[in-house]
Specification:
By secondary structure, the chain is mainly alpha-helical. It contains 13 helices and 4 strands. The protein has a domain at about 45-200 and about 250-310: Orthogonal Bundle (Peroxidase, domain 1). The protein has helices at about 1-10, 10-25, 45-60, 65-75, 105-120, 125-140, 175-180, 185-195, 230-235, 260-265, 275-280, 285-295, 295-310, and strands spanning about 200-205, 210-215, 220, 245-250. Bound molecules: protoporphyrin IX containing FE (HEM) and calcium ion (2 copies). One calcium ion binds near residues 199, 251, 254 and 257. Its cofactor is Ca(2+); heme b.
């Protein structure tokens, strides 16, 4: 009898079966009442249409993927992933100084226009933005992620909600951890999602706190966690008298490729923001930074569940909570 049990257990398929069962019962991150393929009956080509708009825009302008990804981050952290960041007008989130450098709105608007032609009043701006950011990562060479849909568009957008919910580059690890945890995101998610800085750009003002200006207008490095040669390079690109619209690449090596170069940069003290450098400086995240730097696959594998969690923050799914906007920049009842 014992022998028979052993023979049974030694068969590989038994293990595959057990792994399959455990995967099925393992808790998946809760994502409100969203579902995969929410539009499969009401607008079967919705995801395809968003994808095409993002593909065309990104191939014309390689800065688009970074813009869409950051737009999603700033949407989801304020009032949840509900397109509140897209609303225009006095006192909306967009008008807060922390959001004035956001871009990529026109890509979401284009996708919305196409969808309104084919499936009027059906696909939310919140879903369009989440799908667009997902596709943007893929087009920049990053991992393919399946995300559920069914988000509704929020009706509230207030500048005063931005500061308490968006991380500043000067935040300590404890402050970042606290804010992430208030959104249901872990330290692992922080280390993983910060990898978004492998693409995109930043204005000089976003990291000027790492330098000090003397009376002659000369900048010197005051942050020991930054590599000296890299700091010199940054000073060249962003001198004290730089035009405020000047931008530098977040990842000085492969700025348009979604790869693990960001983590390799952190290892050699080339993280652009203080909030990037801190991930390598702190014991709690250093191990993960090293592992992602050594193995792109492990970064990509971690990206999918963390990105999924990001797109699920505070989603609205009932008619009371949100609507399907006709235009992404204004609510239906003006
Ligand atoms: C953890 C704390 C974070 C801080 C302090 C931070 C801060 C910043 C800052 C200051 C910029 C430059 C903006 C500018 O000057 O135009 C930036 C750019 C960017 N951030 Fe973050 N970020 C954080 C996390 C994230 C996350 C979680 C994502 C997405 C998952 C993200 C995606 C991006 C992208 C893609 C850009 C480039 C935007 C562009 O090219 O237009 N960031 N971030
Ligand atoms: Ca929002
Ligand atoms: Ca890169």
């Amino acid at each position: 009898m014992e022998e028979r049990t052993l023979a049974f257990a030694s068969r590989p398929f038994v293990y595959y079966f057990l792994i399959l069962i455990s995967l099925c019962i393992a808790p998946s991150p809760s994502c409100g009442d969203l579902s995969f393929g929410f539009y499969s009956a009401s607008c079967p080509t919705a995801e395809f249409m968003v994808r095409n708009v993002v593909r065309t825009a990104s191939s014309r302008d390689p800065t688009i993927p970074g813009k869409l990804l950051r737009l999603l981050f700033h949407d989801c952290f304020v009032e949840g992933c509900d397109a509140s960041v897209l609303l225009q007008g006095n006192g909306t989130e967009r008008s807060d100084p922390a959001n004035t450098s956001l871009d990529g709105f026109s890509v979401v608007d284009s996708a919305k226009r196409v969808l309104e032609l084919f499936c009027p009043g059906t696909v939310s701006c919140a879903d369009i933005l989440a799908l667009a950011a997902r596709d943007a990562v893929e087009f920049a060479g990053g991992p393919v992620v399946q995300i559920p849909t069914g988000r509704r568009d929020g009706k509230v957008s207030s500048a005063s909600n931005v500061r308490p919910n968006i991380i500043d580059t000067s935040f300590t690890m404890d402050e970042m951890t606290k804010l992430f945890s208030s959104k249901g995101l872990s330290l692992d998610d922080l280390a993983t999602l910060s990898g978004a800085h492998t693409i995109g750009r930043a204005h000089c003002s976003a990291f000027s706190d790492r330098f000090q200006e003397d009376s002659k207008g000369k900048l010197t490095l005051i942050d020991a966690s930054l590599d000296n040669a890299y700091a010199d390079e940054l000073i060249k690109q962003c001198p004290a008298n730089a035009n405020p619209s000047t931008m530098v690449n977040n990842d000085p090596e492969t700025s348009f490729v979604f790869d693990n170069q960001y983590y390799k940069n952190l290892l050699v003290r080339k993280g652009l923001f203080q909030s990037d450098s801190v991930l390598f400086g702190d014991d709690r995240t250093r191990k993960q930074v090293k592992s992602f730097a050594n193995d792109q696959f492990s970064f990509f594998e971690s990206w999918s569940p963390s990105f999924l969690k990001l797109t699920c923050i505070g989603v609205k799914t009932t008619e009371d909570e949100g609507e399907i906007r006709a235009s992404c920049s204004s609510t239906n009842i003006a």
